[in-house]
Amino acid sequence: YQRIAACNVTFEGDDNCKIDGVNLVNVDCGAVLSDNQIPGVVADDGYVFDRWDFDITQPITNDIVIKALSKIDESQICHVKFAPDDYCSLNGDLELDIRKGEKIPFDKIPEVVCHPGYEFVRWSEDVSAPVDENKFIRAECKPEESVTVFFNGGEGGEIVGNSFIKLPLGSQLMNHQVPQ
Fold first, then answer.
1. Average pLDDT of span 43-62
2. What is the DSSP letter of 31?
3. pTM
4. Residue 97 contacts by C-beta under 8 Å, 6 or more apart in sequence?
């Protein structure tokens, strides 16, 4: 009678899943794992178990750590697309994928750059609300209701105080508003 060496099989989860049940089994080296030796895997919210990092239908020939690999649950991902209207452009990523129920990170919202004479009004959707479906979000701009007047001291001149003033559209610039 010849004793067959034993191999230790350790099961681990990746960063987004964990092992459900016994995570260490002892098998005869050269044997294939049986169904009852393979533990269950519980994935975190927003993820699903994908596969093992080792083909568990193959014989175990030495001590081994087998890792459960998870992936994002695509049914829990929402696609968000940003677009400008005709009066502005956007700087930043215009498309992103976000997990259902999460908010769009502030630093992922594109910067709105309005054309001269226009101002940003709002996004077509609430960008601070949790996302629960695919979204198309448009920047909405409108003609400015005010005008900015810039003053220049000219060659050798100097402006004391503010070098600009914002006035309602159609109003008159008064002498006392001009910097000296």
1. 94
2. P
3. 0.54
4. 77, 78, 79, 80
